[in-house]
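User: For documentation purposes, I need each entry recorded in a consistent format: the amino acid sequence on its own, followed directly by the corresponding C-alpha cells. There are two entries in this batch. Please keep commentary to a minimum and don't merge the entries.

Assistant: Recorded as requested. Entry 1:
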Amino acid sequence: MSALADHEVFELEVLEVLNKAGFLRPLVFGGGTMLRLCHELPRYSVDLDFWFSRKTSYRNFHAKLSKFLEDRYRMTDVKNKHFTLLYEFRGGMSGRKLKVEIRKELVTKGLEQAIAYSRHGSSQVLVRALSLKETARRKMLAVRSRDEMRDYFDLEFLLRKGVKIRFTEADKTLILGRIHRFKKSDYGGILGGLLEKDLRDYYIRSGFSYLAGALNFSGRNGHRSLPSLRRRGTGR
C-alpha cells in the first residue's frame, strides 16, 4: 500500500473512532478531504475540516477531544485558537501527520448525510457534510479572496458533478485572468503534485479549459471531454 493510500485509511480510521465516540454529532464535515472521501474528488488533501452544526461549549468540547486524541495518537499540536480548534497528530502505519481543524462557526443550512469511504479499506462512516451546492458557494468565496490552483480544479469537479454555480461577470473576469496566466510547469508542479499521473498529464496539456468553457470565454475548445475523474483502480 502506498503512503498516500495508507494515509487515506488513517483518515477513515480517525473519522470512525471520532464517530463512535460521539464527537461527530455536533460537527459538519467539509473541505477537500470530504469531497475526496464522499464524492470521489480525484486530488489529494491531508486535512479533516469541520464546522459546528449546533451551539456547543468550545472549551468543553476542546478539552474532551484533546484528551481523547492524546490517549490514542502522538500529538504534535493542540490549540484552542480564536476562530478554530486545531489538532495535529501522527498515527497509522505510515506515521504521517494528520490535521483536524474545527471552525468556530455555526453551519445549519446546506447540509446533507454522506458516506465517507475509501477503495483502500473497508470502513464506511456516515457523516453530516456540506452539500455540494454549499461547498460550491464557499469555494467561490475562497476564490474571491485567494489564488490557489486547487480551487479551480475543485470548481471544475463540482461543475462536472452538475452543481449549478453562479458566476458574476466580475467572477468570470477574475478567474479567467488568473487561469490564463498558469504555465505548463504550474500544472505539472503545483497542481500535479495533488493528482495521479493520467489526470496530471491531461492538465499539463489542456489546463483549465473545461472551467473556461463553463465561463463562456473559452471558444472552440472549452468543452473538450476530460479523462475520467475517478481515481485509478476504483469502482466508486
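Entry 2:
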Amino acid sequence: MILLIDNYDSFTWNIVQYLQEIGRDVQVVRNDVHTVDLLMAIESDAIVLSPGPRTPSEAGVCLDLVPACARLGKPLLGICLGHQAIGQHFGGEVRRGGLMHGKVSQISHDGIGIFQGLPSPFPAVRYHSLVVEDVPASLMITAMSDDGHVMGLQHRQHPIFGVQFHPESIGTDHGKDILANFCDML
C-alpha cells in the first residue's frame, strides 16, 4: 500500500488513479491530520508527498516525514511541493524560479532510478513558482529542465526521490512510467 500525503492539491486524485492503474492500493491522508509518528505507524510500502500550494515549511507534516523516511529506510517520492520539501530538508534552497503554471518543458535525465527506460528528453508539465537550488552533496540531480532548473532529485543513500514537474498531468509523457518505476523499487 502507498500512503499518499495530500497537500490540498487537485492533482492528488490523478496520482491516486495512476497508482491504482499500476496495481497499488493507496491511502490518502491530508498533511495536517496526523503526526509523523502516527503516519509512520501505518503499514505502507512507501510514501508519496503530493503537489500543493505554498512552501515546504507550510506543508503540514511533509518536512518532518522526510527524515523519518530516511531513518527507517521507507521509500519516499516527492512531487512538486513534495520534491521541494525533500530538497529543503537536506539543505537545498527553495527559491522563486518564475511562474510555471501549466507550462511544458523538455526534461533531460540520467536514465536511472525513477527515470529508467524513459527517453531523454521528454515533455513534462510544470505547475510551480518555486524551485530547489544549491542542491547539497547528499542529493543527486537526476533531471533538469530545458531552462536549467532542477527537475529531479535522488538521495545518495536512501530510497528518496523527487520530481519538480507533474508526472500525473495528462500533458506529461511517461508520467505513469515514472510512478511505475518508483513502485518497481518497492
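Summary note for entry 2:
The CA atoms of residues 151 and 164 lie 5 Å apart.
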